[in-house]
Amino acid sequence: MTHLYSLTRRGALVGAAALAFSAFGLGVPTSSAQTAECIAPANPGGGWDFTCRTIGKIMFDIGVVSKPIQVTNMAGGGGGVAYANVVNERNTDENLIVAASSATATRLAQNAYGGATYDQVRFLGAIGADPGVIVVGKDSPFQTLTDLLDAVKADPTSVTFAGGSAVGGFDHLKVLMALRRVGFDDIRSVKYIGLDGGADAITQTIGGFTQAMTGDISEVIGFLKSGDIRVLASFTDERIPGFEDIPTAKEQGVDVVAVNWRGLYVPKGISEEAYRRWSDALAKVGASDEWAEAMVANGLAPFNRVGDDFQSYVSDVILEVEALSREIGVIQ
User: Fold this and answer.
1) What is the pTM of this model?
2) Exposed e or buried b per residue across 161-196, where buried means at least 16 C-beta atoms within 10 angstroms of its C-beta
3) CA 213 from centre of chain
């Protein structure tokens, strides 16, 4: 019936459709003012910038958005400046996505964003992660994750863990999560040394100064290939592609998934329809060959949780991190 309308009327309808469908989903052309934007809460380079630029590019390349996604770097407060901007200034912006990671969840749980809470945004999904691992030296007496955890349960002073994050950081917390799963509650007695990065932490373990290292697979690959270490477990749902000989913690009866996920959140005030469109777009990126190549190039493993499933996962992790952080005195 379009022949019944004048060209002016048709133009108005196209403009209305663009407003209704935004810059993604159905690929409706939009004005420059409606170009989708991804905020990377840090300076160029690093994980959050990678998330915005890589996921945004693939969304355009595979046609789930009709225009290239603009990337805005908004550093400050470990992600807190961007979080406050989204919550206070752009709560209903349906053209906005924001890069996030496990660090985002940990900082929210530990009240590092000045009173902001995780339920002030909607977590959209994660489609890749740097898997968490527990590592020992090649000559360690511990052959399995349960061997190591049983030793802590028997005598907490006999095992010291090293990690590349500070006390209360995610490397520390995933050890405490694992111990909780095997019935150990005296988490204040667990010995942990926070060092300046994973390389320092693993060197301490290889040298015998600590009994185990807690970190991410990307930090230990070189040492694993050289034969200096053994990986007792990965904190993943399934074995890590390319490292299929490493058993998961779940396989060993320790039900912990602890990964440095790469994902996104969106403003809380957007419509359910917009949330679903972004969810669908992210899921399509996660299923694409382009993203598979990007994961291999950047040392990531699949971690596909999108939409409500991811929101629930983040909520559970934040509540656990908050409780553990209070117990060890990181927050009051």
Assistant:
1) 0.81
2) bbbbbeebbbbbbbbbbbbbebebeebeebebbbbe
3) 20
Q: Give Cα separations from 112 to 108, 173, 306 (angstroms).
A: 6, 16, 25
Per-residue exposure over 117-140, b if at least 16 CB sit within 10 Å of its own CB, e if not: ebebbbbbbbbbbbbbbbbbbeeb
What token pair was written down for 325?
């952080």
Tell me if 126 sits within 8 A of 262, measured CB to CB.
yes
> Taking residues 252-263, what's their average pLDDT?
95
Backbone torsions φ then ψ of 91, nearest 5 degrees: -65, -20
SS (H, E, C) the chain: CHHHCCHHHHHHHHHHHHHHHCCECCCCCCCHHHCCEEEECCCCCCHHHHHHHHHHHHHHHCCCECCCCEEEECCCHHHHHHHHHHHHHCCCCCCEEEEEEHHHHHHHHCCCCCCCCHHHEEEEEEEEEEEEEEEEECCCCCCCHHHHHHHHHHCHHHCEEEECCCCCCHHHHHHHHHHHHCCCCCHHHCEEEECCCHHHHHHHHHCCCCCEEEEEHHHHHHHHHCCCEEEEEECCCCCCCCCCCCCECHHHCCCCCCEEEEEEEEECCCCHHHHHHHHHHHHHHHCCHHHHHHHHHHCCECCCEECHHHHHHHHHHHHHHHHHHHHCCCCC
Nearest C-alpha neighbor of 304 from the set 69, 124, 118, 174: 124
CA dist list (Å): 65 to 25, 86, 171, 198, 294? 6, 21, 36, 37, 19
Mean pLDDT of all residues in 236-254: 93
Enumerate domains of the chain plus CATH numbers: 2-129+260-327 (3.40.190.150), 131-252 (3.40.190.10)
pLDDT tens digits for 261-304? Answer: 999 999 999 999 999 999 999 999 999 999 999 998 888 988 99
